[in-house]
Design goal:
358 residues, alpha/beta, Rossmann fold, Dihydrodipicolinate Reductase, domain 2, 6-stranded parallel sheet
Length: 358
C-alpha cells in the first residue's frame, strides 16, 4: 500500500494593520519609513490633528492608506497603533485605544506621571492587548553587548558608573510641547533621561535617587540635570551618576567601573563597547562588536518595531512593556520630588553688598 506523505507547511505570520497617530518629526524620520520596510506590516492609516499634515506625508512617501484627524475613526480596521502625540496625550489616547482592543506602541515617556502610567497598564490588563513603549536604545549593539559582558563578569565586580549625555538641542519639532511642563511632564530628564534610566535599571536593578539637581528656575522644564543613583540587583549594590544637557556638549560616554577593567560606551559609536584594562603593566583598550549579518536588519527602531510585531503574532515577548516603563517614570517622579537647583554662585545676590550699595 502506498502512503501519500503530506508535508505540512509552516504557519505564515499574520499581517498587522498598523495605524500611526501623530505625523510629526519622529514619525516622518523613523516610525513611518521603518513600518513601510517591515514585511509583516501594512500601514493602514495616518492620523494627525492637522489632517493636511497626514495627507502630505502620505503623498511624499507614496502610500495609498487612509488619512484622518480622528484616531477613533480608524480603530475598527486597525490591529495596532503607534501613538506619537505630545506627552500629555499619551494616557487618554493609549487607554482608549487599548480598550477598543487595539495593540499600542506608545512613544516615550508612557505618561507624564506615575499615576498616568498605571492607568495605561490597567487598560492593557483589562483589554488583554499589548502595550509596548518606545525604547530604541534597548536594541543598540552596545546595550546588548554591555548586558552580555556584565553577565560574563568580563570586567570583574562592578563598583560604579558615570554616564554623560549632552548636545545642544536641535530636534525639529512640529509643536513646542517639549518646552511646556503641563504638556511634556518636565525637561531633559523625562525627555532623554528616560532612555538611560530604563537601560541602567535593566542592567543593575531597581534604583533609588540619592540626589537630583537641575537648572529649573520655576518653569518645570530643565535643560541640565544631574542624578546620583544607587541600584540593588543581581550585580550587588552599585552607585552611579547620570548627567544630561540640552545646552552644551558633555563627554557623551558611559563608563562602568569594575575591579578588573572599565567598560566604555561612546555616543559616537553606538555599536561597540570598549574595555579598558591593564595587560602586563600596560593600559590597553579592547573593542567588542556584534557581527553584522546582511540579511538581518540592525536599525534599533526596526528591531523595536519587529519585537512589537512578533509579540502580537505570539512569537516573542515585549522588551519594554507598560510595567517596565512605569518603573522608570516612578524613578523620574522621585527625582523631581527631591530636586535641588544647581549651585550658581555667580547669579546669587549678596544681601550685604546690596545694603552697602544703598
Amino acid at each position: 500500500m502506498i502512503v501519500d506523505t503530506i508535508q505540512k507547511s509552516e504557519p505564515q505570520p499574520s499581517i498587522i494593520r498598523l495605524g500611526i497617530l501623530g505625523c510629526g518629526a519622529i514619525t516622518r524620520e523613523k516610525h513611518l519609513p521603518i513600518a513601510m520596510s517591515h514585511p509583516d506590516i501594512l500601514v493602514s492609516a495616518l492620523v494627525d490633528a492637522e489632517v493636511q499634515r497626514a495627507e502630505l506625508l502620505k503623498q511624499v512617501v507614496g502610500l495609498t492608506c487612509r488619512t484622518s484627524d480622528d484616531f477613533r475613526a480608524i480603530l475598527p480596521e486597525t490591529d495596532a497603533l503607534i501613538v506619537a502625540v505630545p506627552n500629555y496625550l499619551h494616557v487618554p489616547v493609549t487607554t482608549e485605544v487599548l480598550r477598543a482592543n487595539v495593540n499600542v506602541l506608545c512613544e516615550k515617556p508612557l505618561a507624564i506621571d506615575a499615576d498616568g502610567a498605571r492607568q495605561c497598564c490597567a487598560a492593557a490588563d483589562e483589554s488583554g492587548k499589548l502595550l509596548a513603549v518606545v525604547a530604541p536604545r534597548r536594541f543598540y549593539g552596545s546595550t546588548l553587548l554591555m548586558s552580555a559582558l556584565l553577565e560574563e563578569e568580563r570586567f570583574g565586580t562592578v563598583k560604579s558608573y558615570d554616564w554623560e549625555n549632552g548636545v545642544p538641542f536641535e530636534w525639529r519639532n512640529a509643536t513646542n510641547f517639549l518646552f511646556q511642563k503641563e504638556f511634556s511632564g518636565g525637561g531633559v530628564l523625562v525627555d532623554e533621561g528616560v532612555h538611560f534610566l530604563d537601560i541602567l535599571q535593566n542592567w543593575f536593578g531597581p534604583a533609588t535617587c540619592l540626589s537630583y539637581h537641575d537648572d529649573n528656575w520655576g518653569s518645570g522644564v530643565e535643560a541640565n540635570a544631574l542624578v546620583e543613583l544607587e541600584h540593588e540587583g543581581r550585580h550587588g549594590r552599585i552607585r552611579g551618576s547620570l548627567k544630561l544637557s540640552r545646552t552644551y556638549e558633555l563627554k557623551n560616554r558611559l563608563l562602568v567601573h569594575g575591579d578588573r577593567a572599565t567598560a566604555e560606551i561612546r555616543r559616537s559609536d553606538a555599536d561597540r563597547v570598549y574595555l579598558h584594562l591593564d595587560l602586563q603593566g600596560r593600559r590597553v583598550i579592547s573593542a567588542y562588536e556584534l557581527p553584522t549579518l546582511s540579511n538581518e536588519p540592525n536599525d534599533p527602531f526596526y528591531c523595536q518595531l519587529d519585537n512589537f510585531v512578533r509579540a502580537i503574532q505570539g512569537t516573542a515577548k515585549l522588551t519594554v512593556d507598560g510595567m517596565v516603563a512605569l518603573k522608570t517614570i516612578e524613578l523620574i517622579e522621585n527625582c523631581y520630588k527631591s530636586a535641588q537647583r544647581f549651585p550658581e554662585p555667580w547669579l546669587e545676590v549678596d544681601p550685604i553688598g546690596v545694603e552697602k550699595a544703598r
